[in-house]
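notes to self, project folder thing:

trying the whole complex as one job this time. last attempt i did each chain seperately and stitching them together was a nightmare. two parts in total, labels are on each line so i dont mix them up again. if this works i'll redo the older ones the same way
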Amino acid sequence: MATDRLGDRHQAAGPILEVTDLRVTYDAGATPVQALRGVTLCVGTGDAVGVVGESGSGKTTLALSTLRLLPGEAAISGSVRLGGQELVGAPAEVVRRHRGRTAAYVLQAPGRGFNPVRTIGSQIAEPMRLHLDVSKPDARDRTARLARLVELDPDLLESYAHELSGGERQRAMLAMALACDPPLLILDEPTSGLDSTTKAAIAETLGRLRQEQGLALLVISHDFSLMADLTDDLAVLYGGVVVEQGPTRTVLTDPRHPYSRDLLGAYPSMTTQKDLRGIRGSAPDPADPPTGCPYHPRCTQAIDECATWAPELSPVAGRRIACLRGGVLTRLAAKNLTKSYRTGLRRTVDALRGVSLEVREGEVVGIVGETGSGKSTLVRLLVGVDEADAGTVEWEGRTLATFEKAEWADFRRRVAIVFQDPFEAVSPLLSVAEVVREPLDVQHIGSGSDRAQQVAAALAGVGLPPTDAFRSRRAHDLSGGQLQRVAIARALVLGPRLLLADEPTSMLDASEQAKLLVMLKDEQLARGMAMIVVSHDLALVRKVADRLVVLHAGEVVETGPGAEVIAAPSHPVTRALVKAAATLGTR
Amino acid sequence: MAGRRRRRRLRRFAVRVPQYVLIVLVAATANFALPRLMPGNPVELLLGEDANRLPAETIEKELADVGLDQPLLTQYGRYMSGLAQGDLGYSFRHRRAVSTLLRERLPWTILLVGTALVVSTILGVALAAFAVWRRGRRRDVASIAVFTFLESTPPFWIGLLLLIWFGANLKWFPLFGSVSVDRTTGLARAGDIGVHLLLPAATLVLASVGATFLLARASLLGVVSEDYVLVARAKGLRERTIAIRHALPAASLPIATSVLLRVGSLAGGAVIVERVFSYRGVGTLMLEASFGRDYPLLQGGLFVLTLIVVGVNLLGDLLYPRLDPRVRR
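result (full assembly):
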């Protein structure tokens, strides 16, 4: 296909945009607001780089800084090199000549980017007349060509902004940005406010323009799917700092910074089927940013050092992240677990045949399999009740087999288990308070009053009345749902980092089951812990699990994100499980 | 598309015409009624203090001469039919046709008010643009204080101060009149008119520039924070270009509205200022007519003023869609 390049461009070798240690502080009110706190970013010629972040992350400040469009009260330091020209500290006239010429800015809300009292066409032509030495008729020709290039009806050039639809305005905005054939486009939320069909069409046009015109793109957005469509590299901005940076696919499919991971978890997409999850706490106040890592107040794996040390970006698994803990922790890892049981004099059963598994902080892993698939054996090995014939189980990088006594105690405190049948797991003779307090007693944690307090908190957490009357009731007086809650309160009272739930709701009716699962998810969000849910019920597990592991005859036959596994099961066993899962009506 | 727009504009205009006709009719009636509501009658004032001593017949004869002996309704009928034929009547006091008098005086007032309007608008808008673009907190506050003060100062007071300083003390400008009698030709006459115009026009400018400045400043402040100004800057436009080609056109609607609305108030101000500077405009004429209960002159003068104000409004109706395409809907 012949490309319709708009003109020759004198391209400088090297990156078109280089931002180094950029800091921007708004000094308007009583307290200065630090919008950017040391951002480094590079866009090579023809590259497409995305910057993703929530509102208040500083992403618009970053976009405006690249053309030094910040308001007067913004103090800027560091370096912004655009087309080889340093803009920080450069005279206004030098900066002005690069605007629209070396990089063009495409505004967030296309409706308000056009002057309402001037025609669209005259505004598109304006930068040409300014930067390129073109005559009026030539500018008009070129404007019409630009309109066709961005798939805008050239008849609309005589119209005013209010006469155009949102999509048309965004196309006109693109045409205006392309007026002087700049090598770089800065797109600030290019598709926000557009409906999804228009959004997709605009993204497609942008992709095509990039191909045909050899454009470099800097895309600023909170929209992950746009990033996936448009960009090659992605930077995740939080509290004015880049927390993760790497190839877009890598970052989106396997985010490693806790913030990226949590943000993706909150993003609705067709590739995750589980419920949306918010991030606990709220975004940092830029007037009073947290010390150390900006995410530590909300991070579920933060340690004391996170509050004092600001981490630098360093390479982890094919991208760079700024996290003292090296990114999202792997809590529990099983490698090549093999286990067989002797069932008779000469007969053995291979319960597990080389099972590997990883559970990361904040993640919910669903282990699905039929009876006899090896689920129970796997659970026993994972919690260290049984030892594997071969293979290892690691807790935060340390092998269970090498644990000393103290390490075991710590492990027991941090990994909690909820069993299928609460009537079996809870002694019917103990009172509710005694059941929940038992782990504290066993681990000798806290004084008597501390324990009573923790018990009350745990009971409240699982939605049980923390009254004396309820606490003194005997376990055998409770309903199945209540008893399972008591069992969960007992599991949570130690503040575990991993909760292993083995068929936690199989004894409950549907409404109790739903309430219990919602409660478990809430507890997980509030406390931040990893979870393993073992079940034969695929319909249930997919609602809570980030990742599914399908077990069959002691082997992992399939693993992956829940939605993918269910939408396109590759193994016959998975297909059978999907087919057998409960459906209402026709499939 | 353009043809459709023009048709739409024509239709808008056609809808307005009966409205304007109605306004003019109502105003003409009010112009007839208002002078007659004032105490006293023209003959008594015309004849001066002797009126009391004159025989009643003389007064009645005088009244009959000017048509005031007729019932009000008949007077009204004559007045309206005269208006329809373009006849504004005959001044009791000047013993001349009202239209001739107005034709003599109106150009002076138009010159005075027009100059003041143009200068105060340009000055006010330019100062506002400057204030908005170079805004520093302290200077902004100071300029607002100065212009608010100016806006709330009565024009006659400003006029008197100017007259005392520049006319009486410094003797830079003539104290009264709109033109000297002796200079009658070409450039000399134009210069003379200019010198006579300067103080009264300056008075009106000072009295009205505050309002324009404050309004233009507010409109421009609303515009400069708009996204399209940021986009214009991102295109690499110079600040001056942004101000002139983007901000001012977008802020022009309220500014134009205020300028047009001010024609009426400036005409009112002109009456006072003309009096202070003994300027030979319609204002002085109307003031005299009102003291002398010169009904036909008052009616005629007010009618012409009404026509001007209505005309200005009509101009606005035609102008707004050109200033802001969003009005065209």
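what i see at first glance: The mean pLDDT of chain A is 85.
need to look closer tmrw
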